[in-house]
């Protein structure tokens, strides 16, 4: 989605953006450039490390899935940058919808794999590889066979949009079924994240008390600390967008100058920063 004032500039070269819109537009470009550079470096370095270790642990299965998800996102970012820099979409309506779908698939797929990693470590589950493969396969199947076709066939079809515009599906978010779906997604993510955060902090506190002062020398504590890293990524990257989404849905009708639309795009861009997780997590993979 892009601010209508930005779209209007496509039709009038003499029209300039308001200062706040210009700043938000610059933030969008900066965020996606950081994602593209840092995410690509992280994917390459982590892939190299996994290839050297040749690990077959269940955690590695989730990490590989995250790498694939991040790769799809990184391949879509140049299209977004082209739109934000040129301020005109040149790739057709299908490419526009596909680029949008990839971002949402990446966000919720990443969250699902994070939950898998945290759950295994939190409860110290001895998952067989077949169970892990089933979980990963279910996430990919749901994304590829259900969510993606539904979004591509419906997303952006109930309203008319200018062919030079992209990510302008904000009017459809006010439809009743879309409001319900969005509230459900927000509720599920917030609830799951809150429960896992409380449980993870409790486990870390219990281990810290047990092993103090040599906590870093214990593998169990380090594994739980790594799990908490994924919770932090969720809190920093995903939670702000979902909190703002509720506010955006409730106040969309007041957004006459479309400022909320650009703020929503910035928060959405923030969710893609999770692709930098591989750079932060290269210190080691639990086996």
TrEMBL record:
Keywords: G-protein coupled receptor, Membrane, Receptor, Transducer, Transmembrane, Transmembrane helix. It comes from the Eukaryota. It is a multi-pass membrane protein. One of its GO terms (molecular function) is G protein-coupled receptor activity. One of its GO terms (cellular component) is membrane. Its main location: membrane. It is found in: Membrane. This is Uncharacterized protein. It comes from Melopsittacus undulatus. The lineage of its organism: Eukaryota, Metazoa, Chordata, Craniata, Vertebrata.
């Amino acid at each position: 989605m892009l601010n209508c004032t930005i779209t209007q500039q496509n039709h009038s070269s003499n029209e300039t953006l308001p200062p706040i819109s210009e700043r938000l537009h610059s933030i969008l470009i900066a965020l996606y450039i950081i994602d593209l550079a840092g995410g690509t470096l992280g994917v390459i370095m982590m892939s190299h490390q996994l290839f050297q270790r040749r690990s077959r642990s269940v955690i590695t299965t989730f990490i590989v899935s995250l790498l694939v998800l991040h790769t799809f996102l990184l391949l879509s970012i140049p299209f977004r940058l082209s739109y934000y820099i040129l301020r005109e979409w040149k790739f057709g309506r299908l490419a526009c919808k596909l680029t949008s779908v990839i971002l949402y698939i990446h966000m919720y797929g990443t969250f699902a794999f994070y939950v898998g990693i945290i759950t295994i470590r939190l409860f110290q589950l001895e998952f067989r590889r077949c169970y892990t493969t089933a979980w990963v396969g279910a996430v990919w199947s749901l994304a590829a066979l259900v969510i993606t076709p539904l979004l591509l066939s419906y997303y952006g079809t109930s309203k008319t949009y200018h062919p030079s515009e992209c990510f302008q599906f904000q009017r459809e978010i006010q439809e009743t079924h879309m409001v319900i779906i969005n509230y459900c997604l927000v509720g599920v993510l917030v609830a799951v994240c809150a429960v896992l955060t409380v449980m993870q902090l409790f486990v870390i506190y219990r281990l810290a008390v047990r092993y103090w002062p040599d906590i870093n020398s214990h593998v169990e504590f380090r594994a739980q600390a790594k799990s908490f890293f994924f919770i932090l990524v969720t809190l920093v990257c995903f939670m702000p967008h979902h909190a703002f989404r509720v506010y955006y849905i409730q106040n969309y009708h007041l957004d006459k100058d479309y400022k909320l639309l650009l703020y929503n795009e910035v928060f959405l861009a923030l969710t893609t920063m999770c692709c930098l997780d591989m750079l932060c997590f290269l210190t080691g993979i639990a086996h």
